[in-house]
Amino acid sequence: MFRSVRFRYICFWIFAIFLFKTTSIFYYDLQDRSIEQTRSSLPFEIVKIRSTNENSSIESLRKFVEEKNFQQKMFNRNLFISNQTRYVLLVQVHKRVVYLKKFIEMLRLVDKINETLLVFSHDFIDSNIDELVMNIDFVPVIQIFYPFSQQLYPNEFPGLDPNDCPRDISRNQALVRRCKNAQHPDKYGHYREVSIVQIKHHWWWKLNFVFKSIEVLKNRQDFLLLLLEEDFYLSPDALLFLKQMENEKEKLCPDCLFYTLGNLEKNGRYFNKLSGKVSIAFWHARYNLGMTISHTVWTLLVKYAEEFCTIDDYNWDWSLVYLAQQRFNSPRVLWSSATRVMHLGSCGTHHKKTCSNESDIARWTETDRFYSDQRKYLFPSSPLTVHMKYQNKRPFKNTNGGWSDLRDRQLCLSFAFSSPRNLTSVQ
């Protein structure tokens, strides 16, 4: 009797252990499958990169960027008609996923967006960003990647080299320390900041890449670049209004070199009075919101690339102001009196205040409502008229510094010229 009970007891525990092991194996197999399914929804290259160690991961990221810039895969190619695509929307993207998601949602509502080419230029590789872009289905899309970002060069130039001089060290201390760029502080005595100089580098690189290296745009000089960022908001009639400005340019401002859709003035939101009006001024940095760059303008910039790349100013727009006033004979800009572009970002280079996803989404929601309320004033059907014509030129203020390192200047020049330029004499 005792042996029978003991035998049953042993059998019970053998069965219990077997059941536990079987359940565990099934559970972890199911979990692994779930992980693999999640991974399979992301770009294979990015998943593969994440599984490697830091050094090989950086090398893999660089190869990823090189391949993507070479392939230039176009999503929604069926919507792209080369000789009919006048506008190329060039969007500079960092890593603000919340902004990018709202930006893409907004683009869907812009009239004639499907007749453009949308180019996202990234300086940060992230699977969440990639997934957002890959799911766009209403416009032809190409992604390009800035190949010298801080993410790709975390411990060496153009990133932060351990032997670089700290930003606020004095020149004498830098010389004693013998840090790499000790001889070249900016006009205010500061040394380079990677996150700051990267913005100008990225802006200049993407401009040259689109005009020189995008295959579907090769041998074309008739397209117009509309420069945007991930935290910009376009009105539903933005593209049609740009086309209207182009069509009526000869009557309104035959010598204008730029178009700008944004308006930073307070009266820029008065659509009931200004919807069908434009203003004219000498181009300045304040007219950079939703500005356009033509092949003619890009050719001029390349012609004076050495000055663009050596002026001691980390801002691309203030570098352009210098060229516009000193080399381009102060060209005029034709801009929308009622703003068709808004800059909604509360977090960025020049915004030091506290920001959050909730406040950012609230700003987008507010702007959605604003353009919805102004709908009856959008899409003007009458010919455009001039609201204001400014005759005074804004004086060029002192440069902002932050751009004195010879390595930055040399890298900047390399984006415009295939052969290296000697900058050893530049101060």
Task: Describe, in plain words, how this protein is organized in 3D.
The structure is a single chain. With 427 residues, the chain is an alpha/beta fold. The chain has two domains: 2-41; 72-416, Spore Coat Polysaccharide Biosynthesis Protein SpsA, Chain A (Alpha-Beta Complex), CATH 3.90.550.10. The chain is 43% helix and 13% strand. It has helices at residues 2-40, 44-50, 54-71, 97-107, 127-134, 171-177, 194-213, 238-247, 249-252, 271-274, 295-303, 305-310, 316-326, 357-373, 406-416, and strands spanning 74-75, 87-93, 117-122, 141-145, 224-229, 232-234, 256-260, 277-282, 292-293, 332-336, 341-343, 385-389. The strands form three sheets. It has a six-stranded mixed beta sheet with strand order 1-4-3-2-5-9. Strands 7-10-8-12 form a four-stranded mixed beta sheet, with helices on one face. Strand 2, helix 4 and strand 3 (117-122) form a beta-alpha-beta unit. Helix 4 runs parallel beside helix 14 (357-373). The longest helix is centred in the N-terminal third of the chain and has 39 residues, at 2-40. The chain is globular. It starts with a helix and ends in an 11-residue tail after the last helix. The model is unreliable at 20-42 and 423-427 (pLDDT under 50).
